[in-house]
């Protein structure tokens, strides 16, 4: 798919913005992030149990160690452990003093009686593990935690918070402007009944699902099959959004209203030959730094191209890496369509059955989870392995 190279060369991430850590969930880092403080900032217990000196464990099995202090997570007045004593300690509590000779014996490896701790014989010093995390065990101050282009999930945000980071530079959520063109289209409102020849405009609903799912924002409009209206749309939206998508008006000759309007508005055509179906009538172009995708109108084609083209462009604007659908091999459960001169993409459902990865085409407007890539020039048969593009992230 050579056209992917054209897209990757022209679509650049948006400029990064600084946001509080609490607002960064799901965003993509625009710059590398380094720890401001070490984690943990101090030596701490990794288990609920008892803090004692290693060389006193054997004798404590019979004699016990007096428990002289209880160290909870968050305690600020934890003293150093005195020889011949033990501390009841909880996960995350501070461990004071030289930790080399200390260990935390998990509570299930001992018992407490009359304020004395008795380690269980043969279980006290399991694998010589101290169960103490020294200062900086997880990362040191100044160490790189994340590179640019990494998506921030809850675990990564927690890591950044522990590193003393309060704000992060991320790529903003792209604004996608969608135009559905067609004189036959009407909005699917409850009070509106279709007249003969009319169709409900549903492509905005299909595309909005993918745009919002992958971190974008969307606004949409509907226009008639009118050259002037399409030119006005391109002219206005190229000034105020991050990406433009159109559906419809991509017919042959005089019916190719969208492409002609795109050119009339000053757009630059980068690629208009995608060598696949659907894709014969697709245009990828630019208004300066704003990418434009002009798609055909049939909803099934739009649903397929949403994950093959629209979502990858959106993810490039968000600064993500590896934006194209993941490829897997799957076994067809039914013969493919009649052969075409170009690669043919059809919506399918991928599933597993008795250890086999299977894929079947969907019919009508049923929901799929992948694209089936039928080879050019021949008909794929039931039981054949074919390439499948997964739609999930």
Keywords:
19% helix, six-stranded mixed β-sheet, 7 helices, alpha/beta, 4 domains, Molybdopterin biosynthesis moeA protein, domain 3, single chain, elongated, 393 residues, Molybdenum Cofactor Biosythetic Enzyme, Chain A, Molybdopterin biosynthesis moea protein, domain 2
Protein architecture, described:
There is one protein chain. The protein has 393 residues and is of the alpha/beta class. It folds into four domains: 17-39 and 140-171, Molybdopterin biosynthesis moea protein, domain 2 (Alpha-Beta Complex); 44-133, Beta Complex (Molybdopterin biosynthesis moeA protein, domain 3); 175-317, Molybdenum Cofactor Biosythetic Enzyme, Chain A (3-Layer(aba) Sandwich), CATH 3.40.980.10; 327-390, Beta-clip. 19% of the residues lie in helices and 31% in strands. The chain contains seven helices and 27 strands. It has helices spanning 3-10, 57-63, 154-162, 203-213, 227-237, 257-264, 299-317, and strands at 17-20, 28-29, 33-34, 44-45, 49-53, 65-71, 86-89, 102-106, 110-113, 116-119, 132-133, 144-146, 167-171, 175-181, 185-186, 199-200, 217-223, 243-247, 268-271, 276-277, 283-287, 290-295, 327-332, 343-353, 356-361, 370-374, 385-390. Strands 8-5-7-6-10-9 form a six-stranded mixed β-sheet, covered by helices on one side. Strands 17-14-18-22-21-19 form a six-stranded mixed β-sheet, with helices on both faces. A hairpin with a 2-residue loop joins strand 24 and strand 25 (356-361). Helix 5 crosses helix 6. It is elongated. The two termini are 20 Å apart. The mean pLDDT is 92.
